[in-house]
């Protein structure tokens, strides 16, 4: 069953783009051919990182949230307070409660329309996280680098994939993208280790998780879908 899970990473190799929740496409177009962002944080050299996570199903929707995970949007954004000597601290701008927000839970700016609709909720949550992360120290405010994760299983019987913007009823096909049954298009689990400043001056954090909702990834990863994105940089030098 599990061997049919396809996991597609888009942008994990920090292709990313200085993604801007609101003007996403415009920001993308500004990435030059070397994959460097022309907006925000070219080369990812900024100490105060802005990174976010988004997951999609096959149809570029959210459809349903994974149990207890909230809406599949999250962010890790902080500024560094540079003190004398070794006493720098990371001032996080997004709480874990913010990252866990999911349908039915309100936040500043959420519309009543989106409250119980996972697709709309994800969009508004992303904008909200963007507002917490926004960097306005240049003429072009920007929010974060985005890590995108997409489920490659297509559940043709779920009726979740619109066609040309119109709802499409379930249909049967045996080709192309295998689905092992109900739930194959689910959203992943998401664990977040917020960026910490370690004793040697390295800053480090990660997102990881799996599409196998019943798996315990602490007990080994054999035959599981598993993704992990780790970011790391020395305070004051180099790039992420
Ligand atoms: C840092 O150290 C310098 C020189 O010792 C001192 O003048 C300054 O007030 C200190 N700054 C802070 C924030 O402690
Ligand atoms: C995934 O993240 C969790 C929570 O931060 C961590 O405890 C775990 O070690 C990570 N798993 C792997 C396989 O790296
Ligand atoms: C992983 O899957 C393969 C192929 O189905 C199977 O032979 C193997 O025993 C599985 N390993 C574990 C640890 O479940």
UniProtKB/TrEMBL annotation:
Transmembrane segments: none annotated. Keywords: Signal. Residues 36-240 form the DUF7705 domain. Residues 1-21 form the signal peptide. InterPro entries: DUF7705. It holds the Pfam family DUF7705. It comes from the Eukaryota. The keyword Signal applies. PANTHER family: EXPANSIN-LIKE EG45 DOMAIN-CONTAINING PROTEIN, OS05G0272800 PROTEIN. This is DUF7705 domain-containing protein. It comes from Gossypium davidsonii (Davidson's cotton). The lineage of its organism: Eukaryota, Viridiplantae, Streptophyta, Embryophyta, Tracheophyta.
């Amino acid at each position: 069953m599990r061997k049919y899970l396809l996991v597609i990473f888009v942008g994990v190799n920090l292709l990313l783009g200085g993604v801007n929740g609101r003007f996403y496409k415009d920001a993308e177009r500004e990435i030059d051919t070397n994959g460097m962002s022309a907006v925000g944080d070219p080369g990812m050299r900024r100490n105060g990182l802005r990174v976010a996570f988004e997951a999609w199903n096959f149809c570029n929707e959210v459809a349903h949230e994974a149990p207890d995970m909230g809406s599949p949007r999250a962010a890790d954004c902080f500024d560094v307070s540079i003190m004398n000597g070794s006493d720098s601290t990371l001032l996080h701008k997004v709480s874990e409660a913010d990252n866990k927000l999911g349908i039915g839970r309100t936040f500043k700016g959420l519309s009543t329309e989106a409250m119980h609709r996972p697709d709309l909720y994800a969009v508004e949550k992303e904008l909200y996280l963007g507002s917490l992360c926004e960097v306005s120290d240049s003429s072009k405010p920007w929010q974060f680098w985005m890590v995108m994760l997409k489920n490659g299983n297509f559940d043709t019987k779920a009726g979740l994939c619109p066609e040309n913007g119109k709802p499409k009823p379930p249909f049967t096909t045996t080709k192309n993208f295998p689905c092992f049954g109900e739930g194959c298009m689910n959203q992943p689990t998401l664990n977040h280790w917020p960026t910490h400043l370690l004793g040697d001056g390295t800053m480090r954090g990660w997102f990881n998780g799996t599409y196998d909702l019943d798996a315990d990834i602490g007990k080994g990863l054999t035959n599981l879908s598993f993704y992990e994105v780790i970011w790391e940089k020395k305070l004051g030098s180099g790039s992420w």
